[in-house]
Amino acid sequence: MNGAPSGGDSTAPDSAWEELVTAALLGTDRRAPARLTPGRTAPAALLDAAAVMTVRRRAGLRPARAAQRPEPAPGDPRPALPAPAAHRLTTLLADRSGGAGSGRRGSSPDLMELLPQWLATANAHGYAAPPQALPALLDAARGRTDLRPAALAFAGPRALWLARLNADWRFALRAAPGGGAALPDAEEPEAVRRLWQEGLFAERAALLGALRARTPALGRELLASTWATERAEDRLMFLDTLRTGLSDADESFLEQALGDRSRNVRATAAELLSALPGSALAARMAVRATACVALDRTGNAPAITVEAPPECDTGMERDGVVATPPAGRGERSWWLAQLVEAAPLAGWRGRLGGRTAEEIVALPVADDWQGELHAAWCRAAVRQRDAAWSRALLGPPSAPEAGGPGAVSLAERAKLLASLEPAERAAWVAGFIATHGLSEAFQLLGVCAVPWAPPLGQAVVDALNIARDAGSYPWSFSGVMGLAERCLDPAEAVRLEALLAIPDEREDFAPGAGGYWAEAFQRLVTTLRLRAAMTRELAPPAPPTESPQAATPPAEPPRAAAQPPDAAG
Amino acid sequence: MTEQGVRWTAEQVLALAPDAASRKAGSKLGAAGPWSGTGCAEGTVWGLCKGSGSRPYQTVVDLTGPAGPAYKCGCPSRKFPCKHALGLLLLWAGEDGLVPASAQPPDWAGEWLGGRRDRAGTGRARAEGGPGGGPADPEAARRRAERRAERVTAGATELEQRLVDLLRGGLAAAEQAGYGLWDETAARMVDAQAPGLAARVRELGAIPASGAGWPARLLEECALLHLLDQGWLRRDRLPDALAATVRSRLGLPASPEGPPVRDHWLVLAQYDRVDPKLTTRRIWLHGAESGRTPLLLSYGAAGRAPELSFPVGLALDAELTGYPGAGQSRAALGERFAAPAPAGFRPPGVTTAEASARYGEALRDDPWLESVPVTLGEVIPVPDGDRWQLADAGTDTALPLTRAARSRPGLWRLVALSGGAPVTVFGECGHHGFTPLTAWPEGPGEAVPLC
C-alpha cells in the first residue's frame, strides 16, 4: 500500500517518484524519463530507478499519528472463570457455527443446547466472562434472542463497550437500557426521578421493573406521580409491571385505576386486585360469586347448585367484568365464570359447609355447570397461586387426561402444577408418567424444576426404557429426550449405563430401532456427563485455608469407581 | 512438572483440527460418553471410541513426534486428525481425570507407538549418516542443477523483456489487457521452473483492479520483479548470502544448513494459507535464549491439514536449523527433546517506531521482504474511521492494521482483550501495515490467537 504506515504523515510529496509513476503509466515511448543511464534502454532505466525508490520508500516508512483513543472499558469486578470452565466455554461456542443440522442427531451431544445452562450457572456464581470470548458470545446472542439476557449479563460491561464499536452488536445496546449505563437504584432518588421523567419508554419500563423487584412501594409511588399524564398504552404496560412485588399496599392505587379511561387498563387493574384476596375488589367479587353458587342439601347427597347472574351491572363492569361474551358463549355463564375466577378461593369453604378444597371439588354439580365452575376455579387457583386448590383440582396423577375431578386439560394442569412446591410438582408428574407414559408428558415436564428430582428422573428413564421395549423409534420421543438431556440430574447417568447396549432385534420391532435407541441413550448419557463436568468446572475453587485433602474435588461422580484400576498399581 | 501440568488446553487441541467441521465434530466427542479404556503416558494418549458399528474405534495420538502430533484411528475418515483423535485429546485436555495417567499402553496402541519410535530412530540414524554419504550420484545432481539454472535464466530473460515492453507501452495499456497477459506470463515462468517468479507475476494481475493508486503499486511490484530478475542474472557478482536470498525468492530448492540451535521455542502463531492445490502453514516461533524469531513452514495437499502443528502458547525444547540467505527467517525443525509444554514466558515487546525501523533494516538484507515478525509491547487497538491501528500506550504514534486484518474475527478478539488498555501483540509488520496474529493481556493471562 502506497506509503501506508506513514498515513498522511509523509514528508514533502515525492515528486521524483510521482514522475516515475506518470512515465510508467504513459509508457516510455510517450514520455522518456528525465535522466537516462548510459547503456540502458529507457524502460530498463525506469525500472532500475523505480526499484531503488521502492525499497527506499518502504525502508523509510514511519508510524502514523495515533487517532483518538477509545475510552477504556469499565472494569468488571467479578472474579475470572476457573481455567477449565473457560475452556469449556470455548468448546461450547465453537459449536455455534453449525446451526441446526438436518437429519438425525447421532450419538453426540448438542453443545449449543447446553450453553443456556452453562450461562445460568456461571451467572449464578457471578463470574466475569473472559474478554477474548466476548465476540463469540455476542455473535451467539445475536443469532438467538432467547440467549440474550443470560449472555449479556455474563458478558458484562465490556461487551457493551465492545458493542459500541461494532454495528453487528447494536442489539446489545438496545437490550441494555440506557445504552448499558447502570440503572439508578433507590439510594439515588434524584437520578431515579430524572430518568423517570426524561427517559425513553424502554428505559422507564426497565427502571420501574427494577424498582418493583427491590423496593415495590417506591416503584408504585413513582408511577402514581405521573399516572395522569401517561398515554393509555404506556399506562397499560406500566401497570403490568406491578405484577412484580404485588402486595396489599398497592390496593388503593389499583382501586383508583379501576376508574381509568382505558378499558384495558381497567381490566388489568381488576385482574391484579383479584390476585390480592384481601382487597376490597376481591371481597366484592366474593359476594357476587357466592350469591350464584350454593349447596343443595335436599337430595340424597349434597350437591352444588349454580344460579348464574341475571345481569352485568355497572358495579361488575367497573370491577373488570367484561359484559359482552365471545361468540358462541351464553352471557350469563360468561359472567359467572368471571366472577368465580376473581373471587378469593378461601371464601368457598364457609359458603359450602366448611368443606376442604378436595371435598368441594368432589361435590357433584347440578345442571351441567361442573365444567364451567371447575374451569373458573382452576383459573382462580393459578391466579392466586393457591397450592391447596391446585392440588385438589389436579386430582391424583393416575386419573386419565381431562378426567380428573377438575376435568381439566393438560395445559391447565401444567399451569396448576406451577402453584405447587417443586418437590410435590415433580412427584405428581412422576406419577403421571408412570401411569400414562411419555407421549402426553412434554408440557408437564416443562414446568418442573431443573435438575429433575430423583423420582421424576427415575420415572422418565423407566418410561423411555418401556418405550424402547415397545419397539417404536426413538424420534417419536425426541422432545422428551431433548428435555431429559437438559433437565435430568447428571447423577442418573449411572442408571442409564445399562441401556446403552444394542438390544437383540425382535420381530415386532421397527427395523433398526434398537441401534437408534442405543444411540439416543448414548447421547443422553454423554450429555449428562458433560453437564456434570460443566457444573464441576464452574464450582468456585476451595478457599485456601482448607486442608489439602478437603480441597480436592469432593463429589467425584460415582463413575470414577467404574474405571479400571491403575495398571501400574 | 506433573503429568497434568503438560496437558494442553482445549483451544490448543482445537487448533489441530483440519477444518471447522472437524472442530465441531471433535468437540462433541470430547466428553466421557463414547470413550472407554482411555489412558496417557509420556506424551501419548489412547482410548476406545464407540462409533456406529459394533467394534469401537481404537484411537492413539503421539504428541512427541518430530513433526508434531501423529494420529492413528480405526475410523475410515480421511481427515487428519479425525474427530475421534480430536475428541480424545479434548477429553485428555479437560481436567476431569477422564484420561488417567497409565504406565503401559494397551497392546493395540503400544504396537503402533513402538513402530513409530523405531522408524523415528532409524530415520534419525539415516539422517546422521546422510551428509557423509552424500547424494547417490553427485555428478548427475550437478548436471540437473545446471540444466535448471539455464531454464531459470531463460525465464528471467524473457520476463525482463516482457517488463521492458510493458513499460515502453505504458501501464495504462496493461490495465486493458487484463488478467490474460499475466496468466500467460506466469505459465511461462512455471515452465521455466521459477515458481517464485510465477507467483509474483500472478499477483501483478490483480493490482490494476485493486482501487485507487494502483499504477504506483503496479510500478513498485514490477520494479521489484525486475530487481529479482537482475539479481538472478548477475548472481555471480552478488555476495553469497544475497545470492542465496535471490535463489530462495525465485523458489529454487534449498536445504537448511549451519549449526542447529537448541532453545525453548515459544509458539507465537500458526496460520494456514489455503490454495486450491496446497495448504501452506506458517508457524512463528520465538527462542527464549536466542531471542530469534524463526518461521517453520509445513505443507499439506488439497484438503489435508499440513502435518506440522503446534498450538499457540506452548514451548518446544528443540533444535532448529536455518535456511541459507540474508534476512531469511525460515528454519527447519530438527530433533525435539520433549513434548511441547505450556510456556511461562512471553516475547519482549518493542514500540511502533522500533517495529517499523526493524522492517526498514530487514529490507537491507532482503529487499523483497513484505513484512517482518514483531512483538509490540503496550499497544492499544484504536478505531480510525473505518480502519484500525495499534497505538503506543506511551507515545502518540501508531501502526495501521492491514486491510486483511481488518476483516478477520481476530480483530474483535484483540479489541475485546484490550478493552482500551495496553496489550502485547505479536504480528507481521510491513509496508501494508501490521497484521496482528497473537495477543497477550496486560496482566497475567494466556496467549490469545487472533488468526
UniProtKB/TrEMBL annotation, chain A:
Residues 71-82 have a biased composition (Pro residues). Residues 61-83, 535-569 are annotated as: Disordered. InterPro entries: DUF5691. It holds the Pfam family DUF5691. Residues 61-70, 547-569 have a biased composition (Low complexity). It comes from Streptomyces echinatus. This is Uncharacterized protein.
Automatic annotation (TrEMBL), chain B:
Residues 109-153 are annotated as: Disordered. Transmembrane segments: none annotated. PROSITE patterns: ZF_SWIM. One of its GO terms (molecular function) is zinc ion binding. It comes from the Bacteria. Residues 114-127, 139-151 have a biased composition (Basic and acidic residues). Residues 57-93 form the SWIM-type domain. Keywords: Metal-binding, Zinc, Zinc-finger. This is SWIM-type domain-containing protein. It comes from Streptomyces echinatus. The lineage of its organism: Bacteria, Bacillati, Actinomycetota, Actinomycetes, Kitasatosporales.
